Amino acid sequence: MSESTTTTKNSGTPVVITIIIVAVLAISIAANVFYLVKNRRVKNEIGDLKIVNDNLKTEIVQLNEQNQILTDTLTIKNKDISQKEVVISRLNEENATLQVLRVQVEEIQKISAEFNLQNEQLKKIQEKMKQTILDKQDKNKKLKDNLTKTK
What is the average per-residue pLDDT within 11-40? Predict the structure, then answer.
């Protein structure tokens, strides 16, 4: 081989070394381009993830607000339930009292019916006694009249 094929005329550097240097530079440029493209993708993915993160933070804030509203509503409803339980308890006590009163009223009605029956019987007896008294008075008058005539 001659020296002209392995070295360049101007610099005296062998052609193989120049090719290697050019190849290394080409690989280096290709690697840089690859990393730049990959870096852009990563930055785009990071940007997308930031948007998703911001959306999730907004959603969490909204859910926390809804949770607070629901907690407040639940507190109010629990108070309402407690108040209604007190009313129901009082009504149950009144209902028990009413049931006792109902039984007592029924007993009083039975006693009243018995009293009315006895009263009617006593009125009949009274009428009979009045009639008996009138009969006795009439008989006494006749006897007295007879006694006075016989004297």
Answer: 86
